[in-house]
């Protein structure tokens, strides 16, 4: 009987595997720079419901870590850039960090940490070199601390780097000519050698969307995977998409420093849906359909054919408080909306089915009340200043050129801004006044393309589903162990 049950289980499990081979291997970035972040338990549930077994964080938020405890989801935790200098200067601090953020979760039923991301894109040119000196020593101190704590064989430190750490010469712009950026080539070589010594992977973020955003002459089709672009010919190897070309430029750079076989993780890849003329749901759907199909087929790239590429999608949900310095699209990277609802069809299994993701469960909304321009408002001279105020504290990026709410009249703009602010302020009474210019309304001002959203209740999503008991038990155990560890 037991053997029959076991056999049945095996048969069932091989079926689930066959149904979602990509989702099993696929990673997801979980960012939390939102005015109303989805509750961590709802996030973990939505990951499970969609069969996602790997997640990448941008910190080690204790609520997120507690929710992940016992879930079996593999985690890449992260050290923010502003901590790198301290961790670089003092090995004792790195040791302490590992104790507090890795060791305390490292038990049966705790959090399955696989990687520690040391910094996030620290060598971006826009950081003016602020993290050039501290990143490598911080990486060394953290990996050494992991090794000394006896977990270095299972948990690897890596540095998620922006793809601008390598390039091909303008005179020979093909992937096989890829080298690390000349101003940091010595440093990159040292980092690669250190990663290799510790059997740790190289992590890079690749954004075909940005290639398009940053260059008006970039051929649209080359950002996607449909093969429609005029190929780039690299010594007889034809490249039809920028993802492959970018990945293989890195492979060439690694090869040039003697580590051509180093495992590469794509730490972020994705497509935003608002805030730019190319940031739209239809393009995101097309991009992911192509990417997921290739991942499912283990296509690899020309330099590394026939292999699965470990990829973390960016990102899970929209984040309405992200800096828009890189562009208005920054707040719209989610494959799910701010409230955990899917935006477009997406088959994580890469079979091209017209499927929707399972939405977040138990999300509760604020009442169906919007804030809009008062139709009887007199003093319209004050409108501009009030719109500016609202947009300083709330997300107005959908109003911009090429975005979903662009092209409205002044009244529409004002209502959009006032409502965005009112929602961020949890519909507080005095948050819909604007010197008498605004009034709450029960009538939805949304148009066919422009969504005047209702925010979710902060921290109010209930946890539903079968894992509730196990997760609660794990959380209690975790709290106990943390108490013990901190004594
Ligand atoms: C980098 O330098 C530019 C120009 O000098 C400046 O505008 C920007 O704020 C600096 N960024 C950082 C992160 O220091
Ligand atoms: C509405 O706001 C957008 C974004 O700020 C701006 O580009 C546009 O000119 C505004 N439209 C009107 C009619 O004021
Ligand atoms: C607008 O938001 C509602 C929920 O607030 C959602 O159901 C709907 O799909 C959204 N529409 C668009 C065009 O995004």
Strand content: 5-15%
How many strands, which pairing sense, and closed or not: the largest β-sheet? Answer: 9 strands, parallel
Structural class: alpha/beta
Binned, the helix content reads 25-40%
Query: What's the alpha carbon Rg, rounded to whole Å?
Result: 24 Å
Output the CATH homologous superfamily of the largest domain: Glycosidases
Order of helices and strands: HHEHEHEHHEHEEEEHEHEEHEHEEHHEH
CATH topology of the largest domain: TIM Barrel
Distance between the termini: 48 Å
Total number of domains: 2
| CATH class wording of the largest domain | Alpha Beta
Uncertain stretches of 5 or more adjacent residues? 1-20, 460-487
Give the key terms.
TIM Barrel, two-stranded antiparallel sheet, 2 domains, nine-stranded parallel β-sheet, single chain, binds 2-acetamido-2-deoxy-beta-D-glucopyranose, 34% helix, alpha/beta
């Amino acid at each position: 009987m037991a053997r029959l049950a076991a056999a049945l289980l095996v048969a069932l499990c091989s079926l689930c595997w066959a149904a979602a081979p990509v989702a099993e291997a696929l990673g997801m970035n979980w960012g939390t720079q939102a005015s109303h972040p989805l509750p961590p338990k709802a996030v973990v549930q939505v990951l499970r419901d969609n069969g996602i077994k790997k997640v990448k964080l941008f910190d080690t938020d204790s609520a997120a870590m507690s929710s992940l405890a016992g879930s079996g989801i593999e985690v890449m935790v992260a050290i923010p850039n502003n901590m790198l200098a301290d961790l670089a200067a003092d090995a004792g601090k790195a040791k302490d960090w590992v104790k507090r953020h890795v060791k305390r979760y490292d038990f049966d039923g705790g959090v399955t940490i696989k990687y520690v991301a040391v910094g996030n894109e620290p060598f971006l040119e826009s950081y003016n070199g602020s993290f050039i000196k501290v990143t490598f020593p911080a990486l060394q101190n953290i990996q050494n601390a992991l090794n000394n704590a006896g977990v270095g064989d299972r948990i690897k430190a890596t540095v998620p780097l922006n793809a601008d750490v390598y390039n091909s010469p303008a005179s020979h712009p093909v992937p096989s000519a890829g080298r690390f950026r000349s101003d940091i080539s010595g440093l990159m070589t040292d980092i690669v050698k250190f990663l290799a010594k510790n059997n740790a992977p190289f992590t890079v973020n690749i954004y075909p969307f940005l290639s398009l955003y940053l260059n008006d002459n970039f051929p649209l089709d080359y950002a996607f995977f449909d093969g429609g672009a005029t190929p780039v010919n690299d010594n007889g190897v034809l490249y039809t998409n920028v993802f492959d070309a970018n990945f293989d430029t890195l492979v060439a750079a690694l090869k040039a420093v003697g580590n051509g076989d180093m495992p590469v993780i794509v730490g972020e890849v994705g497509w935003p849906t608002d805030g730019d003329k190319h940031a739209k749901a239809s393009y995101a759907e097309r991009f992911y359909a192509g990417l997921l199909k290739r991942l499912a087929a283990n296509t690899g790239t020309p330099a590394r054919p026939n292999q699965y590429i470990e990829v973390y999608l960016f990102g899970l949900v929209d984040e309405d408080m992200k800096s828009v310095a890189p562009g208005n699209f920054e707040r719209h990277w989610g494959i799910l909306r701010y409230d955990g609802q899917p935006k477009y069809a997406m088959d994580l299994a890469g079979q091209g089915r017209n499927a929707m993701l399972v939405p977040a469960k138990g999300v509760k909304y604020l009442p169906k009340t919007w804030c809009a321009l008062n139709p009887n408002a007199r003093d319209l001279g004050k409108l501009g200043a009030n719109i500016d105020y609202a947009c300083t504290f709330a997300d107005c990026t959908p109003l911009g050129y090429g975005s979903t709410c662009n092209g409205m009249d002044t009244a529409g703009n004002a209502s959009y801004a006032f409502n965005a602010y009112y929602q961020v302020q949890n519909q507080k009474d005095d948050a819909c006044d604007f010197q008498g210019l605004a009034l709450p309304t029960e009538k939805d001002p949304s148009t066919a393309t422009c969504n005047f959203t209702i925010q979710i209740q902060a921290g109010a999503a209930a946890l539903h589903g079968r894992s509730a008991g196990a997760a609660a038990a794990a959380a209690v155990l975790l709290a106990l162990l943390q108490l013990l560890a901190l004594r």
